[in-house]
Amino acid sequence: MSPRTSQKIAFALLFLATLLVVLPVLLILAIIVAKGISAISLPFLFSMPRDGMTAGGIFPAILGTLYLVSGAVLFAVPLGVMAAIYLVEYSHDSLLARLVKLAIVNLSGVPSVVYGLFGLGIFVTFLGFGASILSGSLTLGIMILPVIITSAREALESVPHSFRLVSYSLGASRWQTIRHSVLPHALPGILTGTILGLGRAAGETAPILFTVAAFYLPRLPQSVFDQTMALPYHLYVISTQVPGIAENTRYGTALVLLALVLLLNLAAIVVRSRFRRKKKW
Amino acid sequence: MVSPHPKITIRELAIAYGPKTALHGLSLDIFEHEIFTVIGPANSGKTSFLHALNRLNDLVPGCRQSGQILLDGVDIRERIGAEELRRKVGIVFALPLPLPISIFDNVAYGLRMQGVRDRHRLGEAVTRSLREAYLWEEVKDRLHTPALNLSGGQQQRLCMARILAGQPEVLLFDEPTSGLDPISTAKIEETMLELKQRYTIVLVTNNVAQAARTGDRTAFFLMSEMIEVGETEKMFTAPADRRTSDYITGKFG
């Protein structure tokens, strides 16, 4: 085989492989948009479901997902960022610190249904929060903790060592150095990780299955101890558990969820690229 | 010329990083209002010596240090906190290292860390120290622009202003002109000569000519040891040690 021919074959194979990766994504998007776009309307987004969920909107599910995601972020971001600060700035490179880091990395590989079961055991039963927004948020928060800690660690570690040296040399204490010369410059990176975690929390079904998600609720949740509907679980319910739901309602719900997650990921990309352009060191 | 009052007294100072010795038992006095220069090839222990004087070595994991350093007769490791010491003994590093914040915020950083919030006081300190570092005229109209927009030489003078804002007593310079062009270098040297009226200066340099131009006294470091110390003029005209004369005449380095 001449070099020219083998070159052509290699190129064709590599191109095909790339195409195969992109294709499913485009197909999913195309199918969901094609089948679901006709359902999208203001009443669909902002009204309660009616007639056994066969008609009306998905407002309680959207609101529920927003509650859950906000709760998860409120819980996981402060905790995760503080843990990352401890790991990067305070702990020495001891065996324990390395074990902790390894544990965090592995935690991100735990299947989400296991988090769900964990949440059921700890928050719903043991701590007695019941199936509630609180239990669901905490479970989702724990699930996204590794993402947040890992990205915060990377963001902190990417702040040049010289910033710390300069700060110490000007008489700043360790905490002052972290507070004024490290954290501000790590913030965009931390934000990116947070948004990615947010996207993951919004889309997961298993962790909320046992801890918060309601099949159907006639009214909106009133407190953090109430159950709520949520988009991913609602999608599962109307797709498999309730007969006679119009196809475009199901795909419309999927489209809303997908749009929410993609929007969050897009926000992360925008934040990151703005940060890269501004960064000068 | 040189006043006899020792500002810094160093006795049997030894520094090691893990198994690697950076400095062997060093004893030395540095006098008030002198420019004390340290010359020597790379890895001779110059920077370790400088970083011992404001306890920056404390930040290096695995660094062990023994011996005694006195500032005005006070042991800097026993009797004074690291943060307070670093305010009294400021350092300018080899590379200009402005923080990625505004010129004003860079200069005010140390004072703010001391808890100074008063805008008027901060403004006065920033103006005074930028004047002292001969940077005021060039930046007075853009104090709130990013410090990273300044040229290399201006950034290095900003770093000088930044330590001057805290009204230190001793200034440490670690090869401050190694990354600068000759004109910026001349400006920095001029500034140092001016500053020695009010401060005690320790200048580490890999540029022998710079030591000759600016130093009152000079020490020659080689392979973790101080080979020779004395009046700069004498060292450059009649060095006592063969290795010193080899180094300053450029036979190695």
Which terms summarize this structure?
A: 281 residues; MetI-like fold; two-stranded antiparallel sheet; 11 helices; 75% helix; B: 253 residues; Rossmann fold; 10 helices; 10 strands
Structure description:
Chain A is mainly alpha-helical and 281 residues long. Chain A has one domain: MetI-like (MetI-like fold), CATH 1.10.3720. Helix content of chain A is 75%, strand content 1%. Chain A contains eleven helices and two strands, in the order ααββααααααααα. Chain A has helices at residues 3-36, 42-46, 59-90, 95-107, 112-126, 133-157, 161-169, 174-203, 206-209, 231-241, 247-278; strands spanning 49-50, 55-56. Chain A has a two-stranded antiparallel ribbon with strand order 1-2. Chain A is globular. Chain A starts with a helix and ends with a helix. In chain A, 39% of the residues are buried. By secondary structure, chain B is of the alpha/beta class. Chain B has one domain: P-loop containing nucleotide triphosphate hydrolases (Rossmann fold). Chain B is globular, with a radius of gyration of 18 Å. The A-B interface holds A 92-93, 162-173, 176, 180-181, 185, 280-281 and B 54, 56, 59, 61, 83-84, 86-87, 90-91, 93, 95, 97, 99-100, 109-110, 112-114, 146, 148, 162-163, 166.
Set down the secondary structure blueprint.
The complex is a heterodimer of chains A (281) and B (253).
Chain A: H1 3-36, H2 42-46, E1 49-50, E2 55-56, H3 59-90, H4 95-107, H5 112-126, H6 133-157, H7 161-169, H8 174-203, H9 206-209, H10 231-241, H11 247-278
Antiparallel strand pairs in A: 1-2
Helix pairs in contact in A: 1-11, 3-6, 3-8, 3-10, 4-6, 5-6, 6-8, 7-8, 8-11, 10-11
Chain B: E1 6-17, E2 20-31, E3 35-39, H1 46-53, E4 63-71, E5 74-75, H2 82-88, E6 89-92, H3 103-113, H4 119-132, H5 136-139, H6 152-164, E7 170-174, H7 182-195, E8 200-204, H8 208-214, E9 217-222, E10 225-231, H9 232-237, H10 242-248
Parallel strand pairs in B: 3-8, 3-9, 6-7, 7-8
Antiparallel strand pairs in B: 1-2, 1-4, 4-5, 9-10
Helix pairs in contact in B: 3-4, 3-6, 4-6, 6-7
